[in-house]
Amino acid sequence: MTENKSLSNANTTWHGLLILAGIGMIAVSIYMTDHYFDTLFPDGLEGASTLCNINSFFNCNKATMSGASNIAGVPISLFGLFVGIFTLIGYMFQTDTVERTNYFMLGANAVGCLVLFIYSLVGLGGLCPMCTVYYIFSWLAFFVYFKQSTFAGLSPKVTGIYAVIVLIVSGITYSYVSGKKFAQTQMADSMVKQYDSLQNIGRPKMDSPYLLAKSSEEFDKAPIQMVIFSDFQCPACKMLSELVHEIVKKYQGKINIQYFFYPLDHNCNPEMQRPLHPLACQAAYMASCLPDKFEKVHDDIFNNQNSLSLEWIQDYAKKENVLDCMKNAATKDKVVEMIKAAAPFGIRSTPTMLLNGVKVEGVIPMPSLAPILDALVKRAGTQDNEK
Asked: How many structural domains are present in the chain?
């Protein structure tokens, strides 16, 4: 006969582990929910926190920008928050009905975490550090129940209460998200004022031959002048590269974009004291050998970012007959020169852009960026009419 175990009979060690897991799930979920809104709905020109964007593999933005980050706009981290709260409720109200319902909930959550873990590794080519911490706390909570409790089926009453709470808060969150989306389209004046309040620090003395858009022979003659400092292994830089396509399409003939290599790789960047993106310098060397094809090379590298390898870079260089150029010391010197061009502007992270001389860090979503670009175009037109 199977022994019916109960958490109420477990010792303080198991209780302590359960409390730790519950608090951990709550703390991480709050952070990830905040990160979700900061990334997708920024209130200004500052990017979201980079605390959990460690490198190209351990990166929260990969998860945040993926389709698996939300359900109908409601961040899945909110559901993780509920699991943590219900876990602590289960500890405080140690009844049979709550315990068996929580056992099922934590089991389902553990499986869901495993699916997301595999999806991150296989589908996204990396891991969200904070998400991974949440998975560990989730598996710990389930392990406590697995060892110290016996599953005897769901309680309809407790399940119903949980479901009502989740639905109500999810509905409120959905309305909040809808409001944020609407507000994002209405904050044009605020974004332009924030942009205008920032110091114009100019642009590099040297011009970059690596162009993503060109509407005039002289860089300064375009209404929109964008200088991008970027790293081919930086996930946020990939996001910006995708945004650039949208920008160029909308502002065709009105924008010049120069690309400056800024690999976060100690192999060529004198500002880097430790390894971070080990292939970023190699990718920059290869791309620097193809200025006439740079736009395509830029896109090809970012499109293969998740599977980027030295072999892929060298094969691409062979195909374009630039392998010798890529390995030439003069090529490294050219990349280092572009890296040093960032120093006067205090560039320390990627992506960073100089938008008509104003420094903007991170990736600003199009609804927030477009009002600024529209204002720059309008101002350029006004100046032309006055001449």
From this structure: 2
